[in-house]
């Protein structure tokens, strides 16, 4: 149910779905079991976004001290490519990323700990993303990293098309210009 990815602090969760003639039932979060799987809360806020068009890209975002956020992300309508970039100075995987497809259909969740920049691109219209976070929203601590920094080498699957972005997401610095916000603790 819990799979550590190529960057092992990022965890893919596949909750068990009990299907029957009505549809399915799943436990989408169980604090004790998720803690055993390496996903440490406590979670203090739930977020929900809707993106209308295919190719809507939100990211790459993170919150710094004093409000670093771990995020437990899932897609409850449509489909996304979800991306986590390691921005912990001194980490053996600094600047590297992992990406996973999350969809309403596959039910997968991605645990993105503090110290990672997070973003996603929508692969279907009217895609809804819901995620639990471990710190409250703190606009002062809310920071970004350029989604298209060539040094990151992220394949967003846009096929040469321009993504739909917020104004804010056109302004973020590249990795080389990012101050040290997080240090790797092993
Ligand atoms: C993130 C956030 C935004 N807002 C407000 C600020 C703004 O007016 C409006 C839209 O905010 P944004 O443009 O930052 O929304 P968005 O681009 O969807 O930001 C989100 O992107 C993904 C990738 C993440 O990882 C999240 O942590 C978050 O940063 O909502 C809150 O009130 N609370 C929040 O927790």
Automatic annotation (TrEMBL):
<dbReference type="GO" id="GO:0008830">
    <property type="term" value="F:dTDP-4-dehydrorhamnose 3,5-epimerase activity"/>
</dbReference>
<dbReference type="InterPro" id="IPR011051">
    <property type="entry name" value="RmlC_Cupin_sf"/>
</dbReference>
<protein>
    <recommendedName>
        <fullName>dTDP-4-dehydrorhamnose 3,5-epimerase</fullName>
        <ecNumber>5.1.3.13</ecNumber>
    </recommendedName>
</protein>
<dbReference type="Pfam" id="PF00908">
    <property type="entry name" value="dTDP_sugar_isom"/>
</dbReference>
<comment type="similarity">
    <text>Belongs to the dTDP-4-dehydrorhamnose 3,5-epimerase family.</text>
</comment>
<comment type="subunit">
    <text>Homodimer.</text>
</comment>
<comment type="function">
    <text>Catalyzes the epimerization of the C3' and C5'positions of dTDP-6-deoxy-D-xylo-4-hexulose, forming dTDP-6-deoxy-L-lyxo-4-hexulose.</text>
</comment>
<dbReference type="InterPro" id="IPR014710">
    <property type="entry name" value="RmlC-like_jellyroll"/>
</dbReference>
<dbReference type="InterPro" id="IPR000888">
    <property type="entry name" value="RmlC-like"/>
</dbReference>
<comment type="pathway">
    <text>Carbohydrate biosynthesis; dTDP-L-rhamnose biosynthesis.</text>
</comment>
<dbReference type="GO" id="GO:0005829">
    <property type="term" value="C:cytosol"/>
</dbReference>
<feature type="site" description="Participates in a stacking interaction with the thymidine ring of dTDP-4-oxo-6-deoxyglucose">
    <location>
        <position position="137"/>
    </location>
</feature>
<feature type="active site" description="Proton donor">
    <location>
        <position position="131"/>
    </location>
</feature>
<feature type="active site" description="Proton acceptor">
    <location>
        <position position="61"/>
    </location>
</feature>
<dbReference type="GO" id="GO:0019305">
    <property type="term" value="P:dTDP-rhamnose biosynthetic process"/>
</dbReference>
<dbReference type="GO" id="GO:0000271">
    <property type="term" value="P:polysaccharide biosynthetic process"/>
</dbReference>
<keyword id="KW-0413">Isomerase</keyword>
């Amino acid at each position: 149910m819990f799979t550590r990815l190529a960057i092992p602090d990022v965890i893919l969760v596949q909750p068990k779905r009990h299907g029957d003639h009505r549809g399915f039932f799943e436990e989408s979060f169980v604090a004790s079991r998720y803690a055993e799987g390496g996903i440490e809360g406590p979670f203090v806020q739930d977020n929900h976004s809707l993106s209308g068009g295919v190719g809507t890209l939100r990211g790459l975002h993170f919150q710094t001290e004093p409000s670093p956020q771990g995020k437990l992300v899932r897609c409850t309508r449509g489909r996304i490519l979800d991306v986590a970039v390691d921005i912990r100075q001194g980490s053996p995987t600094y600047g590297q990323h992992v990406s996973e497809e999350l969809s309403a259909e596959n039910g997968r969740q991605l645990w993105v700990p503090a110290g990672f920049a997070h973003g996603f691109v929508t692969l279907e219209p009217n895609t809804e993303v819901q995620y639990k976070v471990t710190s409250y929203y703190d606009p002062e601590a809310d920071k970004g990293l350029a989604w298209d920094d060539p040094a990151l080498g992220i394949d967003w699957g846009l096929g040469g098309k321009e993504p739909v972005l917020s104004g804010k997401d056109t302004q973020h610095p590249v990795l080389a210009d990012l101050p040290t916000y997080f240090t790797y603790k092993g």
